[in-house]
Backbone:
């Protein structure tokens, strides 16, 4: 079947199999930041923005994305770099495997809610699993990022 | 692994219904549950073009389209005002925001899952399932029906004077619930719906008027026992039947107290 998707601002037309997953479709189209962590809809690593909303690309069919607008880290360079560099400088992470999904969902959170409370941060990011850090580092980094941004 | 041969974005409910009569075809809601299966689907039926992804409110009812996501339920202001935030509480622990942006109410109710927060929640309201062929059936009836090949079009919630509290117990955040409870006072009737026993949620009404002379620690505890005695509980990796039975008494009591205890 044929689909047309706007990937990171660029219209892409493709012929796909009916059961191709969005994650594989995006990777086939050069978005290698999108990765699999679990593939059981649990870890959040494969998060992308679909029509502005964060979704699990491992659990959405590419066919369902027909006509939609998708953003991955590759298309959000400025936002991703700003926050990503900040997180790195804070030494918030360990192996960094969870990072792409985490950054995507932080971007989604801040677009919906500019000044989230502690509880709102924890709730919004509950679906992003990290097997190393215990979450304290990332949580601190987000808080410092918000404080620094507020101070500007 | 789920495999799919053909994908059809249907133009009408009739088309969806016709396709769905074939055993090897399947409606795709959010696909999150389906994806965990090893089904070999001939035709995936996509209803996302039928404008079933919204919540309509009139003076009498809420009409929630089958493709409405759990995240929409969570963030809808009037639904949450009406239920004192219980709807938000019932779904906000389900996996994560990204997950809830895809999972649908249609797939959640159709599945009648034994762990379902969603079914537990809606059973404590005056809820109905609008089926394409089967018409409008009370959710309590639908919850007991065997899965067939009809299509859920809307979930309807009749607006009645309501107070409502939702509580669940989870071993860890974002896991399935060990037990889920929703207590409501709906049009003067007290109802406790208990799910994740693990068995399809069931609603028990206070037919003996235990709470009608006022809510206090004593009557709340009595109602908790009353409800729990009418239900069966089972064991799985998350907890034993005995533990769940105990939890049920405690959570029903707590929810009743939160509803208006003194
Ligand atoms: C990892 C994981 C964790 C979960 N945790 C929880 C939890 O803690 N609490 C909880 O309550 N739920 C939980 N769920 C269930 C989830 O919330 C949804 O209820 C479930 O995924 C079904 O919704 P869906 O939109 O994904 O449906 P799908 O997977 O698309 O469909 C499920 C079934 O419903 C059928 N169907 C879909 N829409 C319709 C319709 N309109 N008419 C007729 N049939 C239809 C499909 O054909 C299919 O048979 C979990 C699911 C997963 C995968
Ligand atoms: S890979 Fe998609 S949620 Fe883990
Ligand atoms: S830092 Fe290793 S998984 Fe998160």
Residues:
């Amino acid at each position: 079947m044929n689909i047309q998707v706007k990937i990171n601002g660029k219209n892409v037309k493709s012929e796909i199999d009916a059961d191709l997953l969005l994650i594989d479709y995006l990777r086939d189209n050069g978005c290698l930041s999108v990765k699999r962590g679990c593939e059981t809809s649990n870890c959040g690593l494969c998060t992308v923005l679909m029509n502005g909303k964060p979704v699990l690309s491992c659990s959405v069919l590419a066919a369902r994305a027909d006509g939609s607008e998708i953003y991955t880290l590759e298309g959000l360079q400025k936002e991703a770099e700003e926050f990503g560099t900040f997180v790195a400088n804070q030494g918030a992470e360990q192996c960094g495997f969870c990072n792409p999904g985490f950054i995507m969902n932080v971007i989604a959170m801040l677009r919906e809610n500019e000044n989230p409370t502690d509880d709102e941060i924890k709730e919004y990011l509950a679906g992003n699993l990290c097997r190393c850090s215990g979450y304290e580092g990332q949580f601190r980094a987000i808080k410092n990022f918000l404080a620094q941004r507020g101070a500007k | 692994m789920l495999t799919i041969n053909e994908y059809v974005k249907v133009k009408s409910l009739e088309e969806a219904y016709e396709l769905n009569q074939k055993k090897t075809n399947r409606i795709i809601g959010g696909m999150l549950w389906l994806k965990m299966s090893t089904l070999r689907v001939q035709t995936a039926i996509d209803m996302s073009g039928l404008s079933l992804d919204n919540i309509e409110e009139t003076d009498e009812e809420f009409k929630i389209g089958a493709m409405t996501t759990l995240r929409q339920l969570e963030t809808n202001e009037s639904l949450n005002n009406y239920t004192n935030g219980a709807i938000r509480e019932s779904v906000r622990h389900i996996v994560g925001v990204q997950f809830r942006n895809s999972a649908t109410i249609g797939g959640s109710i159709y599945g009648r899952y034994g762990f379902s927060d969603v079914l537990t929640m809606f059973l404590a309201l005056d809820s109905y399932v609008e089926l394409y062929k089967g018409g409008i059936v009370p959710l309590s009836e639908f919850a007991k029906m065997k899965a067939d090949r009809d299509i859920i079009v809307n979930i309807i919630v009749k607006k009645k004077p309501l107070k409502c509290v939702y509580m669940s117990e989870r071993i860890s955040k974002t896991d399935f619930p060990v037990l889920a409870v929703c207590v409501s006072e709906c049009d003067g009737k007290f109802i406790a719906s208990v799910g994740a026993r693990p068995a399809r949620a069931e609603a028990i009404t206070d037919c003996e008027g235990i709470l009608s002379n006022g809510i206090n620690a004593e009557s709340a505890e009595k109602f908790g026992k009353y409800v729990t005695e009418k239900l069966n509980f089972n064991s799985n990796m998350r907890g034993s039947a005995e533990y769940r039975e105990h939890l049920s008494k405690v959570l029903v009591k707590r929810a009743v107290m939160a509803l208006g205890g003194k």
About this structure: Chain B has a mean pLDDT of 97.
